[in-house]
Amino acid sequence: MNPYQYNQQRWKFFLLIFAAIIAAASLLYTNYLVKNLSKVERTKAEVWAMSTKSIMTMPDVDDEFITFVYSVRDSLAVPAIITDEKENIVFWRDLDSTKTNIKATTKDSTNHHLEYDPHYFEKQLNFMKKSHTPIILKLDNGAKWMVYYKDSWFLQQLRVFPYIQLSLIAIFLIIGYTVFNSIRKSEQNLVWVGLTKEAAHQLGTPISSLMGWVELIKLKFDAEDDETLNEMENDIKRLEIVADRFSKIGSTPVLHNANVYEVIASYIRYFKVRTSDKIIFELVGDKHVEAKLNIPLFDWIIENLLKNAVNAIASEGKITVKISENIAKEEIFIDISDTGKGIPRSNFETVFQPGFTTRKRGWGLGLSLTKRMVHYHQGHIFVKDSEIGKGTTFRIILKSNLTYEPTEI
Q1: Mean pLDDT of the chain, nearest integer
Q2: DSSP label at residue 344
Q3: Residues 356, 370: contact at Cβ < 8 Å?
Q4: What is the pLDDT of residues 382-396, one digit of tens each?
Q5: CA-wise closest residue to 95 among 73, 125, 71, 75
Q6: Of 83, 206, 262, 349, which one's alpha carbon is 20 to 30 angstroms from that of 14?
């Protein structure tokens, strides 16, 4: 792992730990508040139960005292149900009025009275039993009342509030991270585009000079057919292509219809004479498929993949390029396989990240640029398969320029 990736992973780890601490602190503090408010609500429930008992059992007293007791009861009410020892409902408070007062009609249409919905009360009573320990009230006649209650709406909302709050913060952070990451990548892209265009500009003068020197040598020594000078001229032309590639980065490339097999074959002919004789190149597959290509950039794609394949082979081996077509989806598959050291499955996606490299020397930009250039061609690239010690296969998917009409039977 390069230093950039190490620092990035370390900061991500620290931020994750910090976020976990904030989340834990928020949940613990909210739990502390809930516990204290729960004690307050139990006190309210006890006071409400005692005042209800007083109202229902007290002898006739003056109206002013009764009004006071009613005021105390109503100000301290929480959703609750009072039952006797046989779980017959005696009184209830702050429940759904549409469920607790249902008009029931007997056969005698003049006989109307209000009663509660038994199924609703059974459900609420079971819920209250699970929520809190009941408050027991002893009556003067020796009987007992059981007071069941549940948390108020406010306390219920407070229990879920931290989860809602943390979810909103997480959504905000994700959106913020995405936006800032996009801005950072845009700034990096501008820097890379500027560097590549400047490199292309700087290469222009020495390349032109080298071309002139080669022509001068040919004329001076009458060496038009000299093989060494011809190869030097090929390399200078390749430098021109490289400079042209750099100048195109950051601009929308112009694509032209081209035969994929011929373009790849042309580059392999140039590349293999500059590689070890112990590495065998094989190009197989459909020779007629066509796609929209920018040939200088597409050559760069093939160059990067072939160089990676050569570097993956220790001493001798084989590199196979297979071209096939998915007629149904009108796609072209280009599989580049080597017999090298292979890639761990965990790195299938990582190899395309800027800065990732397994070599002691190298910037780790080859596959990142390759992926970008494949994207320019409206295609995709990925590691199709790899096995440690046996080799790797990269697959490029391009849109075929040939369309097929269904055959009428």
Answers
A1: 81
A2: -
A3: no
A4: 999 999 989 999 999
A5: 125
A6: 349
